[in-house]
Amino acid sequence: MQISRTKIEPDAVAAYHEEMEHVLNTDTTMIDDTTKQALLERAAVLSYLANDFVQSPPARANGNPEYTHLAQAMKTSVDQFVAAACAGEAVALQATVDGLKARHASFSEKFGNKKGREDRSSRQSGADWTAQGKSARCSASR
Predict the structure, then answer these.
(1) By the 8 A CB rule, do 7 and 60 touch?
(2) What is the pLDDT of residues 124-140, one digit of tens each?
(3) Residue 3 pLDDT
(4) What are phi and psi of 40, to 5 degrees?
(5) What's the distance, CA 26 to chain centroid?
(6) For the chain, which residues make up each domain, given as ranges?
(7) pTM across the whole model
(8) DSSP string covering 35-100, please?
(9) Which CATH number does the domain 10-120 belong to among 3.20.20.70, 1.10.3720.10, 1.20.120.290, 1.20.120.140?
């Protein structure tokens, strides 16, 4: 059954925020292989969610230039984070992590829906998003 999207799915915004919080809480000053892999996995999840915001806007935001601008800015910040995670460079990672937070704050302030954050039972697991966010993989790792 297809559910009509009249607002940004609260679970999607909450899921993005939750994944972003994991990234924000990661020490990016010392990047080892384990940290790099963890950041790449988080990047895949964020990439999947950001792509969904851009490609599947809710009905009320469809054609809204402000939504398009903010969603695209958020996606761009995720793309930059993916590139930095692939490089594994601490300075680049820190700069892009700061960008993730700023772009998400602008987007969720205008289009986020706080109602429904308590009910996350229908949300996909991070592992599902990681599997679907294959575009976030580094080309060098192939």
Answers:
(1) yes
(2) 444 444 444 444 556 64
(3) 43
(4) -65, -40
(5) 15
(6) 10-120
(7) 0.72
(8) HHHHHHHHHHHHHHHHHHHHHS--TTTTT-HHHHHHHHHHHHHHHHHHHHHHHT-HHHHHHHHHHH
(9) 1.20.120.290
